Amino acid sequence: MEIIQVKGKISESTIIVGESISNLSKYIPGKGVYIITDENVDKLYG
Q1: pLDDT per position in the chain (46 positions), as tens?
Q2: How many domains, the chain?
Q3: DSSP 1-46
Q4: Which residue range(s) make up the domain with 17?
């Protein structure tokens, strides 16, 4: 798993790469959460 912090002009974002979606609740602050994926995730885990 890799955690990347991105600091923008207004706010900061955390990008988590390689973590299991079953652990998502550990990282969700409650709002402003986006999940970016592709068709490979469905092939592997769908």
Answers
A1: 899 999 999 999 888 888 887 888 888 777 777 788 888 887 887 7
A2: 1
A3: -EEEEEE-SS-EEEEEES--GGGGGGT--SSS------HHHHHHH-
A4: 2-45
